[in-house]
Design goal:
The chain is an alpha/beta fold. 33% of the residues lie in helices and 22% in strands. The chain has helices spanning 15-23, 68-82, 98-110, 127-133, 152-159, 166-173, 192-200, 246-261, 277-288, 306-320, 343-354, 360-373; strands at residues 4-8, 41-47, 50-56, 85-91, 113-119, 142-143, 180-186, 218-224, 227-233, 264-270, 292-298, 329-331, 378-379, 382-383, 386-393, 398-403.
Length: 412
């Protein structure tokens, strides 16, 4: 739990239903009778990857001094004052009432962060109340159905900035002065060290026809057209069954460490032995680690029919590793320098994509089309509902899908 969320509003607007949605069960009593909740109720809430303390409160209402209602209101006020963010819930079906306006003004006096939620908006039932809610002056309202789970992706976007460190992480992602972490990996004798020397313009690492010359990961601080790059050459990675010497095992472990620390990984493959099983294993490893991948096909000058060779390479790549479809492929000769000038632009393009954040609305419009074209199967006699999707982080782009029966959803 990294921050605190308080749920407030007048009676019977769905505060306890939203509380139960956050904590994952019927922990708070829910009934059509107004005023069921009296005491503050706290729980461990979750929304996608967000974890927070959530406080359910009694309904806000006018009360006489010294009365039970007045003591209940004091508990609600204490919860709102202590929370990092307060969710003011109104009923979209009933529209905005004088009590809603009164307590919106009360929350403004507290001075804390407030998110206005128009509940009971399943279908178009709460459209009128949603538009009326703008008059409360609490910013753009969020249309929600706590009972059905509609609108939680937008609520996630509203709560994510309150997670400690969230803004700092976003700043570090976009910091243009931070060196780009770039690793070169591949099988032995694929031309990794030759490429590094060609890029930095000097014989920084030893090269030769003998495989396995590089043993340690060699890092070089480099500047490419004004952008700082930390360029790392690694030892060749053979199939695990062939790695028997202790020193080679240490070298491979060092290469794996470099991949985990990198932002972009250039996989060097030999054009004359392109995409052997070990190349595919390394590519899958990079993808599984969540690193951005560029494939550099070296020794391209030794190939006869270039068009046929490239078509065959791309087809094999898409057929063997469909999960990395669209990965950039750069053909070059590290020894002669042919095509090397195309590598870094491809690296920066994939790095920008790796950092990309997609707006929730745009993402869900795409998602609706995908779900309509490929509806999920039935489970226990009920259709699995894929409700919405949101991007929870970049570097790499990572997405959370909110599902009615997550354990029943097939891996495919």
């Amino acid at each position: 739990m990294t921050f605190t969320v308080a749920i407030v509003g007048r009676p019977n607007v769905g505060k306890s239903t939203l509380f139960n949605r956050f904590v994952g069960g019927r922990h708070a009593l829910v009934d059509d009778l107004p005023g069921v909740t009296r005491d503050r109720r706290e729980g461990e809430g979750a929304l996608g990857p967000l974890r927070f303390k959530v406080i359910d409160t009694a309904g806000l209402m006018e009360s006489a001094p010294g009365s039970l209602d007045q003591r209940i209101q004091a508990q609600t006020a204490l919860a709102a004052a202590s929370a990092d963010v307060t969710l003011l819930v109104v009923d979209g079906r009933a529209g905005i009432t004088p009590d809603d306006k009164h307590f919106a003004q009360q929350l403004r006096r507290y001075g804390g962060a407030v998110v206005l939620i128009v509940n009971k908006c399943e279908g178009h039932a709460g459209d009128a109340g949603f538009y009326e809610a703008h008059a409360l002056g609490m910013g753009e309202p969020l249309a929600l159905s706590a009972e059905h789970g509609d609108g939680l992706s937008e609520l996630y976007d509203a709560l994510a900035p309150f997670e400690p460190g969230g803004d700092d992480a976003a700043d570090s992602e976009d910091d243009p002065d931070k060196p780009l972490q770039l690793a070169i990996v591949g099988r032995p004798n694929a031309g990794k060290s030759t490429l590094l020397n060609r890029l930095v313009g000097e014989e920084r690492t030893i090269t030769g026809p003998e495989p396995g010359i590089t043993r340690d990961a060699i890092a070089v601080a480099w500047n490419y057209k004004g952008r700082a790059v930390n360029l790392v050459d690694t030892a060749g990675m053979r199939r695990r069954a062939k790695v028997v010497q202790r020193l080679e095992k240490l070298s491979v472990d060092d290469s794996l460490r470099v991949i985990r620390m990198a932002e972009v990984v250039v996989l060097m493959v030999d054009a004359e032995m392109a995409l052997e099983r070990q190349d595919l294993i390394i590519a899958k490893l990079v993808a599984d680690e969540g690193r951005a991948l560029v494939i550099a096909v070296n020794k391209w000058d030794l190939i006869g029919d270039l068009r046929a060779a490239r078509d065959e390479f791309v087809h094999r790549l898409e057929d063997s590793l469909p999960q990395i479809k669209g990965v950039p492929v750069v053909t070059l000769s590290a020894l002669r320098g042919d095509g090397v000038d195309k590598l870094m632009p491809a690296v920066f393009r994939i790095h920008m994509l790796w950092n990309q954040r997609i707006p929730t609305g745009k993402l869900n419009r795409w998602f609706d089309g995908v779900v309509e074209a490929h509806p999920p199967p039935m489970a226990q006699g009920r259709r699995i509902k894929l409700r919405y999707i949101t991007q929870v982080k970049a570097r790499p782009p990572t997405f959370a899908i909110f599902v009615s029966q997550p354990k029943a959803l097939p891996e495919a």
